[in-house]
Amino acid sequence: MSAQPIVGAPASPRAHDVHGAHPRLSMNVATIKYAPFADSLRVLVEAGYESAGLWREPVAEAGLAEAASRLTDSGLRMSTLCRQGFFTMPEGPERRASIDENRRAIEETATLAAAGAPGSRAVLVLVAGGLPEGSTDLVGARARVAEALEELAPEASAAGVTLAIEPLHPMYASDRAVVSTLKQALDLAEPFAPDAVGVAVDTFHIWWDPEAVAQIGRAGRDGRIATYQVCDWRTPLAADPLLSRHQPGDGVIDFAGFTRAVEASGYTGDVEVEIFNQAVWDAPWSEVAARTAAAFGSAVAPHLVAPLR
Fold first, then answer.
1. How far are the Cα atoms of 76, 111, 169, 199 from residue 305, in angstroms, in the given order?
2. Rounded to 5 degrees, what angle do the CA atoms 205, 232, 56 make?
3. Is it the case that residue 107 has pLDDT exceeding 80?
4. Average pLDDT over residues 266-280
5. Looking at the 3D structure of the chain, how many domains does it have?
6. Residue 125 domain flag
7. Residues 6+ apart with CB under 8 A from 214
């Protein structure tokens, strides 16, 4: 079973029966980056989604109280709040500011999960951060991630929030995430209770790793899969590799194998599509929502066997 806190019971089926959005499909609002917060929720509801992954910047633009109210009114679950972390710098004012920002993110996660429909998950996705400017000390940077978790995990637990460590593809190790494999993320999570610190399983970042499936099994046994995120990998990469995510089925990732492994692990939560791609961002929001539901329905949904719970 997954370890993340769940607010309430599963929502009853609704518009997916008409529109074709799978009941376990969530779309992160970053996939329609330019949509204001209220519009992003409206687009998802109109497309028949039951769940949304939220992004901190649109929430901040709306204001936390307003965002929580609009989430309640939408009837959508929250699958995750993205993102915080970025705490690999040496001790000093910058690191203290980063830790404090993570504390605010924990509070936001708890507030929004409580505002979402039954089945919402209080999961805060963490991106560790890259090497500090001028540093080559990869080992030290990873050690500071562990130190940050020691400081933040008790506060997350007290708030009913799961910190989900997201390993990023190694091409991001220098500037975004010194945690590159699911094994590294699980090793960092291991000292803490599963409901306090888990992991994010994101196909874009781990598809290449020969140990990934075995580590998914380990994560399942330990109850640490806080979220399962899907999007595809296709080459050539964009000039900015951050914008190289594609719809499921448009690239080379084995979604059947990964999804079956995650299902076998006991994870029964929402499955979140999160895409950073300029062409996707430039497309009409409703078209993106419909295309995402269709891609998920073809590439991922046939391999989901467990009902949402």
1. 22, 31, 28, 21
2. 65
3. yes
4. 97
5. 1
6. yes
7. none
The CATH number given to whatever domain includes residue 83 is 3.20.20.150
Q: Which two tokens stand for residue 118?
A: 């039954």
Answer yes or no: is 308 within a domain: no
Is there a contact between 279 and 8 (Cβ–Cβ < 8 Å)? Answer: no
Distances (CA, A) of 300 to 8, 24, 175, 291: 26, 10, 30, 13
- Assigned domain for 309 exists: no
pLDDT band at 274 (very low <50, low <70, confident <90, very high): very high
Distances in Å between the Cα of 149 and the Cα atoms of 143, 174, 256, 266, 295 are: 10, 20, 33, 25, 36
Could you give phi then psi for residue 214, rounded to 5 degrees? Answer: -65, -40
Q: What is the distance between the alpha carbons of residues 72 and 68, in angstroms, rounded to a whole number?
A: 6
Task: Determine what percent of the chain falls in helix, strand and coil, rounding each to the nearest 5.
Answer: 45, 15, 35
- Residue carrying structure tokens 């890259």: 130
Residue 33: inside a domain? yes
Q: Which domain holds residue 213?
A: 6-303
Compute the half-sphere exposure of residue 203: CA atoms within 13 Å on the CB side of its CA: 31
Query: Does the pLDDT of residue 2 top 50, yes or no?
Result: no
pLDDT per position as a tens digit, 233-268: 999 999 999 999 999 999 999 999 999 999 999 999
| pLDDT tens column, 3-37 | 444 333 333 333 333 346 899 999 999 999 999 99
CA of residue 102 relative to chain centroid, distance: 16
Query: d(Cα 152, Cα 10) in Å, to the nearest integer?
Result: 29
